[in-house]
Design a protein that fits this description.
Elements lengths: L5 E3 L6 E3 L4 H14 L6 H24 L31 H4 L1 E3 L8 E11 L17 E11 L1 E10 H10 L5 H19 L17 E3 L10 H12 L1 H5 L8 E4 L1 H9 L10 H8 L5 E4 L4 E3 L2 E7 L7 E3 L2 E5 L3 E3 L2 E10 L2 E2 L7 E6 L2
Parallel strand pairs: 3-12, 7-17, 8-9
Antiparallel strand pairs: 1-2, 4-5, 6-15, 8-11, 10-11, 11-17, 12-16, 13-15, 14-15
Helix pairs in contact: 1-2, 6-9
Amino acid sequence: MVANLIHLDGDTGKLFRGGPSFAELNSLCVQAALRYPTHRGVDALHQMRADMLESGLVGHRAHLDSIRADVGGIPSARELEYRYAEVVSERFKPSNAMRLFDVDTSVPIGAETHTVEIMSEYGQAAIYRPGTSADSEIPTVDAGMDEVKFETVILVTSWRGSIFENFALEYAGRMVDKARIARGVMDRKANDLFWNGSEADNLYGILTLPWLPKVVSGVTLQPDGTFATMLAELNRLASYSTQQSGGAYQPTAVAMGIRLHNILTQTRHAQDPSLTLMKAWLESNPHITSAEAAQELDSSATAAKMLFYEKSREGMSVVLPAPFTILPAETRAFGNRTYSFMKLGGAVSRVPASALLVSFTIS
């Protein structure tokens, strides 16, 4: 029985089986007799074994309890999570007004209105026949002056902060650029006003200019439509301003809804798959040097607009008396507030006869 005693190392807490040597057995008997004088013979060895086993288990439990979860042992879900170093910013629709049209910054920031003067010339000439033409029959020429007044509006926004917020962000290794956020908000609002204006503020937008020529096309543009029919309609519209003005005005650029742009670039000629409707159209109208897509001209899933215009300050422009401007921060106690503004003058076309806004049905 003694040979089958379970031995326990009190220092390491390890248990093992095996028979002791004679010297080891003699030593165990002496230790047991000294530790348990009231026990007889082998009972002393059994009691010493039980006490050593209990002592080893208690020590092992203490060892497990001493292991910190954040240093060793079972990892937490947070420790198994991988975080990317970069922070993804939200994307917004592009602001196309200042990209497509000339930006007029000539209006002073203090001006509340800006006025365009348009001079119109008229008269005629006749053949002079000596002895037969009376002075009253000799025609005359003259000029007239018209004025068109435009309003301006001021866009404003602000952001707040505090010294404690800055401390927290710095500790977290994050810095929030609220000035960049404010500029994005202002640019998107300005873009909407440049396109659509504000009736409540008497501000004209590109699509709401009252004297802008507008037509509705009777041809539906669709990928499976007749290539020749659609091309003929596009050619007619591209030369509309030139024909109406007798050659005085001619558009140099065109912008269209994204869906409409996709139809023109994806529709191919049946006999020549390399020839798209867009390519054939632009080759037929070399005076149009720019054809751009703009989501602001998408009316709906079945309707889109196309805008022909002269890409110049006189043809079509947006007025910006003051770009995005940040004022000094106002500080109160531990907090601060920063204000910013922009000043807009809407859209202007000094030669509206060079432009044409077309409404299409698409599918």
